[in-house]
Amino acid sequence: MKVAVLIHSNILKKVDGMTNYYKKLCKYAGASNHKIDIFLQDDEQDQKIQDNCVRFFFSKVKSSFQPLPKAFLSLNPAFYIKLMWYFHKIFKKENYDCIQISSAHPFCFAAALVAKRLNIPVIGSYHTLLPEYLPYWSAERFHSFPFGKLISKLLGLFVTFWTRVVYCTSDLILAPTFKVKNALHQRFPRTKIEVIGRGVNSALFKPLNNRNQKMRLLYVGRVSMEKDLEQLSFLKKYDDFHLTIVGEGRDLNRIKETLPFATFKGNLQNGHLAREYGSSDIFVFPSKTDAYANVVSEALSSGLPVVAFNDAGVEDRVQTGVNGFLVSSTQDFEAVIIRLKDAALREKMSLQARRSALNLNWDLIFERQFNAFSLAIEEYNKKLKKFFPILRKVLYSFNFSHAFLGSLKMGFYVFLANASAGILAGVYSGLRQSLISFLMVGINTSFFEFLYFRNRKLAIFLPSLLTTIVGTTIHFFTGTPNLITTAATIFGLALFNFSMLSEIHKRHATISPWELLKIFVGYFANSKKQIRIKRASNV
Questions:
Q1: Is the separation of the CB atoms in 181 and 189 below 8 Å?
Q2: 406: which of 157, 302, 387, 441 fits an S-S bond (Cβ 3.0–4.6 Å)?
Q3: DSSP E strands, 90-228
Q4: Average predicted confidence (pLDDT) for the chain
């Protein structure tokens, strides 16, 4: 199976939960001989590199007018057109069995639209709670604006709508936890949703024997406002607690001012990060906007009891009173940390934390991931047996080339037919007929292509019938006399047109007017060549 994964940033340069997942997926694919192509967006390079069974495609296409964060939306139409052109060229050449998008970014949305047009099943992987994240970003951006709160609220509604639009292109959605799955079911009730989960390297992240004079509290992750680190400011009241923060972010200086008593260690990875976990006593996670939080799995694997909010996306791993606490308020957060001063309770929870993390196996996770590609293809084929998904598929595959040429041809004919009544009347009638023809020819040709591989006779008859019904209806409202003769004429011409398309498709596996032009030019050139050869041989 040949699959492609679309990621809106360069995972080779970035460090966060989502990029770490896809880095591990690349290593797993290489080790297990799965073939996978990773499409990344990078403003600095436009190339392709090969790494074992994984190929990396770097796109340099970028937007010049982007008023919202990159993960939300671009209002530059040229950006979408350039992206779709870029993906169409590659997807058609590579002939993928399935693609997976990682976010609601325009980079992913453009790829999904191209995939729908080329009959490629789409998986939507849900990594970020965009509607929940937006208030933190918009509050900071618009707090000084008049009606700033109203602007933030409207943006929230819009981003929720935009996320639905993007993920509606998916035949299958992958959720990180059951809580996220249930929330997504309310937004996408007709789409199949599977929980994929995440693993943890339990050999790297493991408990260490440590004896701290002060109880060490640890946070690992991005240092930004949406992580709600300000919720930990109550710790300044306690001299027997020491807070360590590992990570960097755009709000680092602001958080340092809010938490002057904490130690900030910047980004740590691999062994350095594992030692930081192992030398701590409790893991604190005040964020409410995470869909999964890989750092919680690393903390559990290191034997740390976890204190987090109910909305943190960790409910599948943290059990209150067993390996940590899930709380609903800052007061409860403070209360359970004080309760964890009890060394015996911490030791008991540490054992349970480690035990629960051993079930988070990466091999099992990636086995589910690759099974999801096959499942998406099954879901795609099921949808094609239902009426509305077929109609949506026809609209996705709208044949612009035939629609454009058909509209020009019909518009010109109607203009000539009505030019005797005056130039303006002829132009008006021609433009009206051009618009009608553009829609009818585009839809009917894509409908023909959809049916052709399933039933060739139906591919001729049904588009012809649809053309006749729509055409006759238009003539009825415009007062055309003798509708029966008109309908019969339209039906006969449509049957002839689609019969010709069927024969051309059978011989050349294409109905694209541009490709057919190349074929006919090639025939003409070969014919002239053969004539010259015969003349030369006769001489």
A1: no
A2: 441
A3: 98-101, 122-125, 172-175, 192-195, 215-220
A4: 84
| Triad 510, 515, 464: Cα angle to 5° | 45
* CATH topology for the 3-195 domain: Rossmann fold (3.40.50)
- The answer to whether 128 touches 103, Cβ cutoff 8 Å, is yes
Residue 195's SS3 state is strand
195 with 181: CB under 8 angstroms?
yes
d(CA 426, CA 434): 12
Q: Among all chains, which residue has been given the structure tokens 């600095």?
A: 44
pTM of the model: 0.74
Residue 536 neighbours by CB under 8 Å, 6+ apart: none
What confidence score (pLDDT) does residue 331 get? Answer: 92
Neighbours of 264 (CB within 10 A): 15
* CA pair distance 358, 159, nearest whole angstrom: 37
Nearest to 448 by CA among 436, 437, 463, 469: 463
Residues 71-91: pLDDT tens digits? Answer: 456 667 777 888 888 898 899
Q: How far apart are CA 453 and CA 339, in angstroms?
A: 67
- Burial annotation 228-263 (CB, 10 A radius, 16+ → b, else e): bbebbeebeebeebbbbbbbbbebeebbeeebeebe
Q: What is the pLDDT of residue 112?
A: 93
What CATH number labels 215-359? 3.40.50.2000
What is the C-alpha to C-alpha distance for residues 75 and 350, in angstroms, rounded to an integer?
49
* Residue 123, beta-bridge partner list: 100, 172
Q: Residue 533 forms beta bridges with which residues?
A: none
